[in-house]
Amino acid sequence: MADVRFIDLILGDGEAAPSTDGGTASDEESLDAYSRVITRVADRLIPSVGNLRVTRRTWNGPEGQGGGSGVVITPDGFILTSAHVVAGSNRGSASFADGTEFGIEIVGTDPLSDLAVLRATAASLTPAQLGDASRLKVGQLVVAIGNPLGFAGSVTAGVVSALGRSLPTRAGSVTRLVENVIQTDAALHPGNSGGALADSSGRVIGINTAVVGPGIGQGLGLAVPINSTTRRIVAALMTEGRFRRAYFGIAGGPRPLPPRVIRETGREHGVEVVQVVEGSPAARSGIRPEDLLLDVDGIPVEGMDDLQRLMVGEIIGRTVPLRLYREGRSLTVDLTPIELSTT
Question: Is residue 153 part of a domain?
Answer without folding.
Answer: yes
